[in-house]
Write a structure and sequence with these properties.
The protein is mostly beta strands. The chain contains eight helices and 32 strands.
Length: 525
């Protein structure tokens, strides 16, 4: 590194460290333990164990990563190698790039619904949520565009489907949190959704009393839950009559709340805390439609290994209920909790890539700098079935789509990944990509808490971190993609979207994954 670059790079590291003072930090430890009792608990420390690497087979389905598991090395970014992408036992079948994939998209039957990001989605030719017919995964076709106010305002992480009732719902969140907008669609004909609530929630003159950022359905589809990131107001919206959505419960469980997962009977909510944590709530009174429902907190767990907890996926192993909890910032990865005692969830395992480990945070900083706010973090995951899942597929910011063998919850290993080609230099045309829009900021500021923890513990080597990319304080180069949306299981295929590449249909090699007969993509809400 030249002497002229050194001050700029160190200034970037100082900026990241200063940002971390505003965010939660903790002490360094090995695999965190959670053997204390009580319904409020903290798990401290950083997990320093990565899952076993995927063994990449020969042939066109494999063009493996060149560095640490999950990393897009600085050299690959700077030479343009990352524009070819990386793949291991997984390949692309089809793609609909559009102008970017928003944050969270969803699918139903043979269709996909591409989420919107405000205000960029208003600059493209198809404004609003794009409806794709994916009958032929190799050639997705645009069939409709949903342009109600909630769809134009940016659906963030609220666009969800309930298969039982064949409903699609999205809320409007233009600036991290929105308010008042929610639209409900009948997707019996999935390629041509039909608006059901032209009044409350859709008409600008008839706002619904909710805040919006994240959302999800109860299992029976009669309740749509909406949460705002700032403030963390959580609202239960009754959709028994989808033409007339109404709020039946509302409260502020914490300062900033995120996504959810629900027990199969809909009586228990596993609520994600944006500051890094899991809250377990008894929502049976809402599920029963009691006249004045009371929601009871059963447990509240916080942790220092990762933050921005995104959502929770309830599954069972041999009859015992578990929850996969994903952290979208701070290299927390995916945690697995035994929730057989809802008042005392117990941490059983953590899924991390090598690039997420504390001893590799300096390398992560060197490569992720110039790529904007996120470094390498999990976002949304989906199990391939709710009972005794065999595989978990996760979107992993900058690391692509990662697939894990989870048949044994205590011995998880990676079996495949697909990190799509970077769209380096295409910032201006990707108006619906949050990555392109956020790239006016260069450093991965959301990694700050973990960086500070590793600095304090003497595991962060400044000379490893302070490379040429570390001085890129603004106008990132899109040298990796941001994959945010849940990869949804379709036999040996996964349907998903990434911020820069848009909709992707991906194929898993049959040598590493055989779909169970009762496969049913499960993402929690």
């Amino acid at each position: 590194m030249t002497s002229s670059l050194l001050p700029l790079a160190r200034r970037s590291l100082v900026t990241i460290a200063a940002t971390a003072l505003l965010l939660p930090t903790g002490t360094l430890a090995a695999q965190p333990q959670s053997d204390s009792t009580g319904n409020v608990r903290e798990i401290s420390g950083l997990t320093d164990i990565a899952v076993a690497r995927a063994e990449c087979g020969p042939g066109p389905d494999s063009d493996p990563e060149s560095g640490h598991q999950g990393d897009v090395p600085a050299a690959d970014r700077d030479t343009g190698r990352s524009t070819l992408g990386y793949r291991c036992n997984m390949s692309q079948v089809g793609n609909y790039p559009g102008r970017g994939g928003g944050i969270s998209s969803v699918s139903f039957d043979h269709c996909a619904y591409v989420g919107t990001f405000f205000p960029g989605n208003l600059l493209g030719p198809e404004q609003g949520v794009q409806v794709l017919d994916v009958s032929d995964p190799a050639a997705p076709v645009l069939t409709a565009t949903l342009n109600e106010p909630a769809m134009l305002a940016g659906t963030w992480e609220s666009l969800k489907v309930n298969e039982t009732r064949k409903l699609l719902v999205g809320t409007g969140a233009p600036f991290l949190t929105g308010a008042g907008l929610l639209s409900v669609y009948d997707i019996s004909d999935c390629a041509h959704p039909r608006l059901l609530n032209p009044g409350t929630g859709t008409s600008l003159n008839m706002p619904l009393a909710i805040t919006a950022h994240e959302g999800g359905f109860s299992p029976d589809g009669n309740t749509y839950w909406s949460s705002g990131a700032a403030p963390g107001l959580v609202s239960a919206v009754d959709l028994t009559d989808p033409a007339n959505p109404r709020v039946i419960w509302q409260n502020l469980p914490g300062l900033s709340m995120h996504g959810f997962g629900f027990s199969p009977d809909g009586n228990t909510m596993y609520l994600a805390n944006n500051f890094g944590g899991l809250m377990v709530l008894d929502i049976s009174a809402v599920q029963r439609r009691d006249p004045h429902p009371q929601v009871r907190q059963l447990a509240n767990i916080a942790w220092t290994d990762g933050w921005g907890t995104q959502h929770n996926i309830p599954v069972t192993y041999r009859g015992t209920p578990y929850v996969f909890a994903t952290d979208e910032a701070g290299s927390g990865g995916v945690k697995l909790f035994d929730v057989s005692d809802a008042t005392n969830p117990r941490l059983r395992n953590t899924i991390k890539l090598e690039i997420d480990l504390p001893q590799n945070q300096d390398i992560a900083m060197a490569s992720a700098s110039g790529g904007s706010l996120f470094a390498y973090d999990a976002h949304y995951c989906a199990a391939d079935r709710p009972t005794d899942p065999t595989a978990l597929a996760c979107s992993w910011t900058s690391s692509g789509i990662r697939v894990f063998d989870v048949r044994d919850p205590l011995d998880i290993r990676e079996i495949a990944y697909y990190n799509p080609p970077a769209r380096t230099g295409h910032n201006a045309e990707l108006t619906n990509s949050p990555h392109a829009l956020a790239s006016i900021i260069g450093p991965p500021l959301l990694a700050s808490p973990t960086v500070v923890q590793t600095i304090l513990q003497g595991q962060f080597d400044m000379s490893e971190a302070a490379g040429p990319r570390t001085g890129m304080l603004a106008f990132g180069d899109l040298s990796s993609d941001w994959c945010f949306s849940a990869p949804e299981w379709r036999g040996n295929q996964l349907w998903t979207t990434c911020a820069d590449n848009g909709f992707l249909a991906l194929q898993l090699d049959s040598s590493v994954y055989v779909p169970p007969a009762d496969q049913h993509s499960t993402m929690g809400s």
